[in-house]
Structures are given as C-alpha cells and as structure tokens.
Design a protein that fits this description.
The chain is α+β, with helices and mostly antiparallel strands and 443 residues long. Among the domains are: 16-171, no CATH class; 288-329 and 350-430. It contains 16 helices and 8 strands. 34% of the residues are buried.
C-alpha cells in the first residue's frame, strides 16, 4: 500500500509539470459542463426562461447553429495562433537564453489555464451544436445553453487579450530571470525554515560500512517522498543517507543511498520508490538549478552571437542575492523522526562547490571584460559582508576572489582598467578577518 501511495505522489508531481495536464482538466470540465447544461435543458430550463425572461434565450435554431459554428471556427483559429505563440516563445528562449529554462516556461500555469479554457469552450460549443435538431421549436431548442456558449466565447476573447499581454511579458529576459530567481529563492527559504540549528554533523552516525542501495532506473534525481521514507525508516528501524544531491543525473546501477541495515530486494525496491526521477529539470524542485540556469543565461549573453552584457550583469545581481540566502543554510541537511532523532541525511551541494561551479565558467567567458570582472568582485564583496552560518565561508569567498584577480591580471592589459578592478580587492582586504591573503596588483 505504501509503495502505491508513494508512486502515486511522485507520478502526480511529475504529471502536473506537463504542458497538457491542466488543459486536459479544462477539457474534461467543458465536457461535463456541456452534459450538465443539456440535462438542465431536458428539465425545462429554457422553457422556464422563455416564460419569465425571454430576452435571455435564443429561440431560433438557425441563428443558434450559425453562432455556435462561428464560435467553433473562431476558437480553433485562436487556439492555433496561441499555441504558435507558445512555440515561438520556447524557441526564442532556447536560442537566446538557455535550453534549460524551457521546463519552467512550459510549466507556466497561466498559459496552460488559458489554453485549457479555449479547449473547454470549444468542446462545450460542439456538444451544444450537436444537440440542436432541425425540427426543434422554440420550446425544444437549448436556447439557454446557447446563451451560455455566447458568454463563454466572449470570455475566450478576453482571455486571448490577456494571453497576448502575458506572452509578450513572458518572453522578456528580465521576466525569465526574475521567475528563475523567485523559484530558487522560495525553495531556499523553505529549506532554511526547516533547518534545525540544534543538529550537527556529529549527530548522524558514520555510514562508511552501510549497505548501498543502487538505483534501478536512469534520469535526473528530482524529488524525495520524505514522509514515505521516514515511515520506512521507522518500520525497518534504520537510518538512510542519500548519497547524491538532487538534480544529479544518475545512471542505472549507481548507488543512490546507504542504509544502516541490510535490506532484502523487496525492501530495497520499496525504498527506491521514495525517490522521484525525471528527464527534465524544474527549479521549484531544486534550487541548485536556479544557480545553474542564471549562470548559463549570463554566459550565453556574453557570447559574440548575443553580445548582451546587461543581461549578464542582471544575472550576477540575482546570483548575489541567492548566494547571500544560501549563506544562511548549513552545508548539511537532516530529517528527523517523531522522537527528534536524525534518521535521514541528505547529500547537498557544499557552498564552496556551488560558488566555484558558478564563477568558474563566468571567469572563463568574461575574463577579458572589465565590467563583468568588476561586477563579480563586487558580488563577492557583498557576500563577504553578509551573515553566514557556514564555517570558513569568508575564506571560500576570498579564494574565489583570488581566482578572479589572477584572471584579471592575465586578461586585462590596460593598467587603469586593472586598477579599477583591484579597487574592489582593496575593499575586500580592508574587512578581511581571516589570514587568507588577496592577490596583489604588483606581485
């Protein structure tokens, strides 16, 4: 039973990220609503309205057919145009920014809801059109259902205007960057709020001799069914250490976790059902992807084909805020049972590892650009002054600053430009509380 519930949760989590999920629900809703209106017509709703409010009822069969046929053709045209706009958005975002941002754009609920309402109205109009018979008189004609179809079609036009406005905003790089930032920030804040300051690395036993659990499929490790995994730990009286961080692409047969007890094949299969895999990457599931996507957008913006340093600078600004938030989260994560004992240890990306993999490609692609080097050092200067719960975080930041300064000395020949870059270095040295030295200009 637990296995079925866990798989259902993970299946629903992956299903809701598909572009066709919500439109399918709307389509089903349109079908149900159409049958409900036909049932109401059989109960005499149109006859009642003809007697009490005749102005609300369409009482001519040919007029009703013409209106519904026009609405069906018009809605199909709007659907084709709207889907084309979505495809153009995805293509432009992939070419100009980064292919990794596509899952986030596809999962935009606003656009899915608009397209779903189109489909629901289309199905409703077709259903009502089929119910109109040539011999209908005004008392048998589904006049009220036709009126509802007119109202729904007007709403389609209003939603189309909203869709054009929304799609024109969604294609702007600033909106895309802000959306990625907000998703990563929200996820980070959730993790920080769940952090227990009373726990430390020493509270969890060593897993060196524990039984390895090998993954039985290939894909991106996206989610963990925490409640189900906790229940398994309580049932088998064991502890689990997740060996790989979320967002990692895992091949079949690679160990994904370690268990303090030896489990049989059936128990291992139950444990593996707690891990969700996907072929796409969603920032709301893993904040690390937010860092990765913002970095890739910045690098793409600095390429000769795009040549948009303003976008790269904006990405570094948002990355600075995310790093400042990341400094408030420990490099380790535990999940406790009801007895407040840490029974699950999660593998996370260390701050040192994260900051290196963000700034390393930026240094490689921007080491000849004075403004970008200045901006990167300014970001590190800002982080140096931020509150941190991570041990040796200032040393990590200074190490990264030294790498940038070394690249600046190697890539910039103009002395005045180089001096401007090293002015930030001097500010960092002034507040340096560690023994770590910063690279000097003339050494």
């Amino acid at each position: 039973m637990l296995k079925i519930i866990t798989r259902s949760r993970l299946f629903i989590a992956n299903l809701t990220g598909k572009i066709g999920f919500y439109p399918s629900l709307f389509a089903l809703g349109g079908l149900v609503f159409g049958f409900a209106m036909l049932y109401a017509e059989d109960r005499g709703v149109s006859s009642f309205l003809i007697e009490n409010a005749p102005q609300l009822v369409i009482n001519d069969a040919e007029t009703a057919r013409t209106l519904l046929s026009t609405f069906i053709g018009g809605i199909i045209s709007l659907m084709v145009f709207s889907f084309s706009m979505v495809m153009i958005l995805l293509n432009q975002a992939s070419n100009n920014y980064s292919p990794r941002i596509l899952p986030g754009l596809i999962s935009n609920k606003k656009h899915q809801n608009v397209l779903g309402f189109y489909i629901a109205t289309l199905i409703y109009c077709i259903l009502i059109l089929l119910s109109i018979k040539p011999t209908d008189d005004k008392n048998q004609l589904p006049g009220f259902a036709v009126l509802v179809g007119i109202v729904l079609s007007m709403l389609v036009l209003a939603l189309f205007i909203y869709f054009i406005h929304s799609i024109s905003e969604a294609i702007q790089i600033n909106k895309i960057i802000e959306s990625i930032y907000n998703s990563a920030k929200t996820r980070l804040q959730q993790l920080i709020s769940k952090t227990d300051d009373a726990l430390s690395k020493e509270d969890f036993p060593s897993s060196e001799d524990w039984d390895a659990i090998e993954v039985n499929r290939t894909g991106y490790f996206q989610t963990i069914a925490v409640d189900a995994l906790l229940e398994l730990c309580n049932t088998y009286d064991c502890s689990v250490e997740v060996s790989v961080p979320k967002g990692t692409f895992i091949l079949q047969g690679i160990p994904i976790a370690k268990c303090s007890k030896a489990l049989d094949d059936k128990q291992k299969e139950q444990l593996l059902t707690c891990f969700g895999f996907s072929r796409s990457e969603i920032v709301s599931h893993n904040y690390i992807l937010g860092f990765k996507q913002l970095t890739e957008i910045a690098i793409k913006a600095m390429s000769p084909g795009i040549n948009d340093p303003g976008t790269a600078i904006t990405c570094i600004d948002y990355l600075s805020e995310l790093f400042a938030l990341r400094l408030k989260k420990e490099d380790f994560s535990f999940i406790k049972n009801q007895e407040k004992q840490a029974v699950i240890k999660l593998r996370t990306i260390d701050f040192k590892e994260l900051i290196y993999f963000v700034f390393a490609p930026l240094r490689a692609y921007c080491k000849h650009d004075v403004i970008m080097l200045h901006k990167m050092l300014t970001a590190l200067y800002f982080l140096q002054q931020s509150h941190s719960v991570i041990e040796n975080s200032e040393t990590i930041i200074i190490d990264e600053a030294n790498r940038i300064l070394e690249d600046a000395k190697a890539g910039i020949t103009n002395k005045e430009d180089l001096k401007g870059v090293f002015d930030i270095r001097n500010k960092m040295a002034a507040i340096n509380s560690t023994q770590k030295k910063l690279v000097a200009l003339d050494h």
